[in-house]
């Protein structure tokens, strides 16, 4: 099925490419004189498309050509990017880890590093994607947009559905980046598709509403389908030795009936001078195997984020998030079974682990074609030492540090090159820590 879908997309693009040499190819004229044409994307069309395209690291730019009506009431585009990355890992073989590959995933840095496996060379073309976007009734109150994106995961050629959502009257429905993520503040651009360890970043099945701007003020609220990463419910506390090593809770035997609720309020002086306060409430259901009953507990998170741009040349990024039980929203902790663990003093009950993620960054736009970026980030979790020590080494996680510096140059509107240095450190509970350094280059073609 995946191969068939990719073939259809490639066929559609192959049919479109011969027309690129022509600025306009009229195909149909209706009774109102609204001509359907294949045309280079102008500024007005690009602005409509960008209203509904995802804002994220490695996002595909709005395509340079579109099938559209002359009055922009209907627009359809097919775009994509082919990204070739060449690099070295020095100090660890992070590239070979199953949860990392081309992504600089600091939580996957092997601890300790293995002698004889502390460097690696790679050439990777598996960070490519294609997308389809359709906009109808553009510039009306009923403007509607649908967006679908397919791509590889950076490790192999398996095609995956990455995004699939629609937007209508300020409502968004589908598979998308969670509303909790501040896409403008999360990070400057990187070659690394993973990004900073402490960034709030997660793809969710979501229904959300984002308000129009009221003199700079906006707000948003959503419902996310919850995903939980919890311990297996094995008691590791010291207050009740008779339960040590016994499963006292089970979250897989309880139905999750309440969605996550993310929301934010923002004030913008301009696009790159803004501040946002975000929050999320979660409900976690689990089975108390001691009392043989279903219990519920609350997880929550709060975040301050935004941008500062003192001139056209500089953009600063900042984000600080703290909460309990929000591991699947924090980039580096997502997937670790330590967001919810049994309570030491009450066997059969669980607690939400406290955790934090923060990052800062800066972009310097030297020219219209040349950009420099730098960033630093940390993610951290507390009160899980006994549970982490009992987990496999790959799951033992205390905190991680992430630093990146890069440079991008746009050779043409379609072709971009870049070079990047990455440094990461992973610290565990009781088993030490390890570092990795990565130097990589990128050649990306976007169409």
Helix and strand layout, with pairings?
Elements: H1 2-16, E1 24-29, E2 35-40, H2 43-50, E3 65-69, E4 74-90, E5 119-124, E6 129-136, E7 144-151, E8 160-168, E9 171-177, E10 203-210, E11 217-224, E12 249-250, E13 261-270, E14 273-288, E15 293-308, E16 314-324, E17 340-342, E18 350-352, E19 354-365, E20 370-381, H3 385-389, E21 399-410, E22 415-427, E23 433-446
Antiparallel strand pairs: 1-2, 2-3, 3-4, 4-5, 4-6, 4-23, 6-7, 7-8, 8-9, 9-10, 10-11, 11-13, 12-14, 13-14, 14-15, 15-16, 16-19, 17-18, 19-20, 20-21, 21-22, 22-23
Q: Can you walk me through this structure?
A:
This protein is mostly beta strands and 447 residues long. The protein is 6% helix and 47% strand. The chain contains three helices and 23 strands. A 16-stranded antiparallel beta barrel has the order 4-6-7-8-9-10-11-13-14-15-16-19-20-21-22-23. The chain has a two-stranded antiparallel sheet with strand order 17-18. Strand 3 and strand 4 (74-90) form a beta hairpin. The longest helix is centred in the N-terminal third of the chain and has 15 residues, at 2-16. The two termini are 25 Å apart. Residues 1-31 have low confidence and may be disordered.
């Amino acid at each position: 099925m995946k191969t068939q879908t990719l073939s259809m997309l490639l066929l559609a693009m192959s049919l479109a490419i011969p027309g690129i040499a022509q600025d306009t190819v009229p195909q149909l004229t209706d009774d109102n004189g609204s001509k359907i044409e294949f045309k280079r994307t102008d500024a007005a069309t690009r602005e409509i498309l960008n209203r509904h395209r995802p804002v994220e690291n490695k996002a595909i730019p709005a395509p340079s050509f579109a099938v559209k009506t002359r009055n922009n009431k209907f627009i359809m585009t097919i775009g994509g990017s082919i990204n070739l990355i060449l690099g070295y890992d020095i100090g660890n073989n992070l590239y070979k880890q199953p949860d990392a590959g081309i992504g600089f995933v600091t939580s996957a840095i092997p601890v300790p590093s293995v002698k004889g496996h502390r460097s690696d060379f790679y050439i990777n073309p598996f960070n490519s994607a294609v997308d389809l976007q359709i906009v109808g009734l553009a510039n009306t109150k009923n403007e509607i947009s649908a967006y679908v994106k397919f791509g590889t995961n950076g490790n192999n050629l398996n095609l995956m559905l990455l995004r699939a959502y629609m937007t209508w009257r300020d409502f968004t429905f589908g598979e998308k980046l969670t509303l909790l993520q501040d896409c403008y503040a999360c990070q400057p651009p990187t070659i690394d598709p993973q990004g900073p360890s402490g960034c709030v970043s997660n793809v969710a099945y979501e229904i959300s509403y984002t308000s129009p701007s009221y003199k700079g003020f906006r707000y948003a609220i959503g419902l996310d389908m919850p995903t939980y990463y919890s311990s297996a419910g094995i008691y590791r506390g010291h207050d009740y030795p008779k339960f040590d090593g016994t499963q006292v809770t089970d979250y897989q035997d309880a139905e999750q009936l309440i969605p996550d609720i993310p929301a934010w309020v923002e004030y913008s002086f301009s696009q790159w001078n803004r501040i946002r306060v975000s929050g999320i409430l979660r409900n976690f259901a689990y089975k108390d195997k001691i009392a043989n009953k279903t219990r519920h507990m609350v997880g929550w998170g709060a975040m301050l984020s935004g941008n500062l741009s003192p001139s056209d040349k500089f953009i600063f990024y900042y984000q600080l998030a703290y909460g309990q039980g929000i591991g699947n929203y924090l980039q580096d902790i997502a997937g670790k079974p330590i967001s919810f663990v049994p309570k030491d003093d009450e066997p059969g009950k669980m607690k939400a682990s406290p955790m934090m993620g923060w990052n800062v960054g800066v972009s310097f736009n030297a020219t219209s074609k040349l950009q420099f970026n730098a960033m630093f980030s940390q993610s951290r979790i507390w009160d899980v030492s006994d549970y982490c020590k009992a987990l496999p080494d790959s799951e033992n996680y205390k905190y991680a540090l992430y630093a990146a510096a890069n440079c991008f140059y746009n050779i043409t509107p379609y072709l971009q090159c870049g070079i990047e240095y990455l440094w990461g450190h992973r610290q565990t509970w009781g088993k030490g820590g390890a570092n990795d350094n990565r130097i990589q280059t990128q050649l990306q073609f976007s169409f």
